Amino acid sequence: MISTRLTSLFDIKTPIVGAPMAYVSPPGFVSAISSAGSFGFLGAGNSTPEQLSETLQTIRANLGLQPNVPLPVGVGFITWILEKNNVSTDPRLTSVLEERVQAVWFAFGKDIGSYVRQVREHDSKRDHKTKVFVLVNSLEEALQATNEWGADALVVQ
């Protein structure tokens, strides 16, 4: 076991995160990453809320976890895909949060902060707290993600 802030944050053995890659990180791959003691992300892509819930239930079954137990994986969203719906509460994000994933990842959008707020609002009504990863491309974005949105982790690209 390697002890770092990341391993402590997610109670994992190694500080390795499997990136969310839509269409190339199927449920078995994400499950295997988590089973191996690291943290796996599922890429949401253009999946519907129902498809995301079904996929996360498959991962839950692969890991042998009951529905009331937080799911030790995350789901990554390309934020401009969420923004295409132009709704204040995105049903795909809500479905993922209802499955009790440990983290969400937001990348490439104009208003990532609104989705971070949706996560925080959803979590304020329950005992489970979802960690938020934000992919940033500049110092300015990193400062905004941490100071304005309260991101738990930055992915620097």
Q: Note the main sheet.
A: 6 strands, parallel
Average pLDDT over all residues: 95
Radius of gyration: 15 Å
Oligomer: single chain
CATH topology annotation = TIM Barrel
Strands, count: 6
Give the ordered list of helices and strands: HEHEHEHHEHEHE
Uncertain segments:
none
| Corresponding CATH architecture | Alpha-Beta Barrel
Organism: Armillaria solidipes
InterPro entries: Aldolase_TIM, NMO
Keywords: Flavoprotein, FMN, Oxidoreductase
Protein name: Inosine monophosphate dehydrogenase
Tell me about this structure.
Keywords: Flavoprotein, FMN, Oxidoreductase. It comes from Armillaria solidipes. This is Inosine monophosphate dehydrogenase. GO terms for molecular function: nitronate monooxygenase activity. With 157 residues, the protein is α/β, with parallel strands linked by helices. It has a single domain, classed as Aldolase class I (TIM Barrel), CATH 3.20.20.70. It is built from seven helices and six strands. The longest helix is centred in the middle third of the chain and has 15 residues. The two termini are 27 Å apart. The mean pLDDT is 95.
